[in-house]
# Entry
Amino acid sequence: MTTKILIVEDEAKLAQLMIDYLSLDGFDCHNINHGDLVIDWVKEQQPQFILLDLMLPGKDGISLCREIRSFSNVPIIMVTARVEEIDRLLGLELGADDYICKPFSPREVVARVKSVLRRSNPAPQTHNNEVVSEAKPPKNIIIDPDKFIATVYGVELELTPIEFRLLDLLSQSPNRVFSREYLMNNVYTDNRIVSDRTMDSHIKNLRKKIKKASEGKIIISTVYGVGYKMSF
# Structure
């Protein structure tokens, strides 16, 4: 079955370039150049993937992403020329699965689309080698999932839902290395598909917050080529 991709882009030449390259790889592409036309088309045509520009006439990409996520889990890659918006896109947790910055190589777009699609249809995994121990977090970390409160050395942290679940998971097994794949599969509760770079950004933000609160006593380390671990 051919994958139907919606390209929401108002720059005609750029949209056609993406269509040409994606079509060569067998994707069925459709372009919409105005934000106000997107929602009805998505509901009616149910594409399997969306490339969504941030700046559009009519509804902007952020509003569209929020609205689409209210009724669909279709993979979405945000496209933006505004590099300063990247942290905001991730921080707001709009539900996008990845982002691409303009200018970009059309081959990169194809590669990123394929990568997200692979993650959206993963092979069954047992994670036998990724069993989380039943150990509880050290006493200097207090996590209350019911109240959504996390404190480190008595300092209450301001965390996003993803950061909260990351802290909860990492702190359960001090010094244990968690792969990015395992973290991605276990901290998202809505089956969202995300890229390694998105997870890295969440880890980076969480690392800063707990390091500041613990005065450097708690560290999230990167184990290159493997994943992350929390040390005390």
